[in-house]
Amino acid sequence: MPGNRARRHISQLSEIERGPIIGMKTAGWSTGRVAGQVDRSERAVRNCWEQWTTREGTHARKMGSGTNRKTTRRDDRRIVRQALVNPTMTRSTIGTDLGVAIVPINIFQTPC
């Protein structure tokens, strides 16, 4: 289908598609040859291969990006519990009581 290729480059590679790509690249195939075989762009094949090689043989997707957590999940639960027990308490007071730095997102988006 002519329109199928245009749309496929937007979607992410499935686990089923990643396996053959890794196999062909491991066998020494060029990126262009693999891309033609699996009907994906060379960039998609290159990204898949780089992800696999940097993660020491696993082709699972990276969990996410962003800043490192400053509090543990347990700390987050304690923060929320403290805020629910005493709603008039300020976040700086809660942080002092628990010994952790608190930003508003800890209180508002953490499930109990």
Automatic annotation (TrEMBL):
Primary gene name: NCL1_35029
Gene3D superfamilies: Homeodomain-like (1.10.10.60)
Recorded GO CC terms: nucleus
Chief location: nucleus
Alphabetical list of InterPro entries matching this protein: Homeodomain-like_sf
Sequence segments annotated as region (Disordered): 56-75
The protein's name in its UniProt record: Transposase IS30-like HTH domain-containing protein
Record's subcellular location: Nucleus
Source species taxonomy: Eukaryota, Metazoa, Ecdysozoa, Arthropoda, Chelicerata
Highest taxon above the source species: Eukaryota
Matching SUPFAM superfamilies: Homeodomain-like
